[in-house]
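Before surveying the methods themselves, let us examine one representative protein, pairing a chain with its fold in token form.
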Amino acid sequence: MIEWFTTVQVVVACAAGILCLILGLAGRLPGDVSMGAVAVVELLLLVQLVIAIVAPLAGNPPSGSLAEFYIYLISAIVLPLAGGFWALVERNRWSTVILGGVCLAIAVMVYRMGQIWFVQGA
């Protein structure tokens, strides 16, 4: 894992979450802006997956449990897909709010993944 990339992921996920919450509470249906913000969060998670596969091979192993890290990562990758699918199936303002909640949950999960990788002792 790369520390600055983790920080970028947390900031982007928080920004996307706040944006989706504001749009949803303003009555906006899921659209290009809210779904695009969630797509950026998903893209960053997929890049993180590649980094997490390559980093231990390059001499940057996690200080905590690698299994726990991957459970968080795979769960975080599934969340925007499930939330986005739900938002497209049930198009109402609360779907946009749910997308915001998904992004904020991902921000917390990525922060925890950073703790597992950098801080937590095995």
About this structure: The first helix runs from residue 3 to 25. The chain is about 80% helix and 0% strand. Residues 3-119 form one domain. The radius of gyration is 15 Å.
